[in-house]
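Q: Structure tokens for this one, please.
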Amino acid sequence: MRRARHAKSGFRLDGEGALFRQIERSVIDLILKGSFRVGDQLPPESELVGIFKTSRQTVNKAITELAKHGIVERNRRAGTVVSWRFQERFMVPFIDVKDAITAGGHIYEFRIHARKVLRNGHAGVMWSVLPRDARLLFIEGLHLSDGLPVQLETRYVNLEAAPRIQDESFAEITPSKWLLSNIPWSDATHTVHAVNAGEALAGKLSLPAGAACLVVDRQTFLLGTPITLVHMTYPGDRLAISGTMSVNGDAARLSNGGPRGSS
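A: Here is the predicted structure, written as tokens:
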């Protein structure tokens, strides 16, 4: 557990709505900017009362809401810390393809095909939950197992929510793992559908044209702030997702069967 330094001066109220909601947004903003990272300790409520010049009750209400959404954890001895467990709270777990591949004893590789900063609403890019001209980091990358493509990842990241991702090379960590390790999220939406690969997609995945693929589309949010939109395309005969799901309260886990043998 770490106490984040130099973060107290960054707290700001935006003047919009109830004061406890402004405090929530102020804390979240500092988490997104990297002033507080997973495992970092927030200032105690007594200090936050002075920082925000409000009552203990208002500060407590804001921290209670953040804890309810899994953004922070409260501990009598350690105080309030940015949660390690935010990614475990939802019914559809996030499985990083690298973990699935290496767990099966295969050699993993990630190749970035394209990476650039774009503006929402331009050049055919439209993420409907963000305003026009919002800055996005676009990444297209290929995940391989033993040299064979098993997932094509097409990702957009809201740079207002995750500015530090621009400095990451992804030489040692996948975009998915970086986001899960650095940016908390409170909500996610998923759609899953099948497609037959056109010539362009087939070429990227080393498939014959018309081959069956599975596509998973996912958006993640932090209390209404969009974080990332990703399209993950899997060759239908190369990656098997299997296992069991057990639900205890609001926690669920899913195991990944790893890549299948290929022909």
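A few notes: Helices lie at 19-32, 45-52, 56-68, 97-103, 175-182, 199-205. The chain has six helices and twelve strands.
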